[in-house]
Amino acid sequence: MAGVDGSDSSWRAASYAAGLARRQGALLAVVYVQPIPVSPAPGVVGIMAEATAQVAEEIVAQARRDAEKLGHVHSLRWEFYTLRGDPYSGLVRTADDLRADAVVVGASERAGHRFVGSLAVRLVKAARWPVTVVP
Predict the structure, then answer these.
(1) Hey, which family's this protein in (predicted)?
(2) Please, which residues have CB within 8 angstroms of residue 72's CB and are 6 or more apart in sequence?
(3) Which of 29, 50, 118, 127 could lock 1 by a disulfide, CB 3.0 to 4.6 Å apart?
């Protein structure tokens, strides 16, 4: 299973996971968790929710383009999942539901996560599946 959010590191993680899935003859699950927008200003939540839905559409379109390129050379089975919620909880729940053999995510590109902790660190600490963090 690969967690993606549209960042460069998440696409590298998806590529890495695709290689693993191809070599193992496994199904690749590409997962995007749409963050739940919170705002005190009325009307902003709807706009933010629409934006995250658009990101999901862009991610699946990019995944399809990449899979089509690879499809001519390698057979790769994959599925795209999107859900709303906290990214950590969403990835954990999806990995558990799918009985994922491994979870692959990109390293956080946010400077503050070096001090506070990132999604990848939280997944590693969960220790439910092998977790690979791709830079």
Answers:
(1) Belongs to the universal stress protein A family.
(2) none
(3) 29
The token pair that represents 48 in the structure block: 């933010």
Joined together, the tokens standing for residue 76 give: 């790769």
The CATH code of the domain that includes 87 is 3.40.50.620
Alpha-carbon torsion angle 111, 117, 122, 127, nearest 10: 110
Q: Tell me how many domains the chain contains.
A: 1
Taking the C-alpha atoms of residue 84 and residue 74, their distance in angstroms, rounded to an integer, is: 32
Q: What is the pLDDT of residues 61-100, one digit of tens each?
A: 877 776 666 554 567 888 989 898 999 999 999 999 999 9
Q: Is 130 helix (H, G, I), strand (E, B) or coil?
A: coil
CB 28 within 8 A of CB 103: no
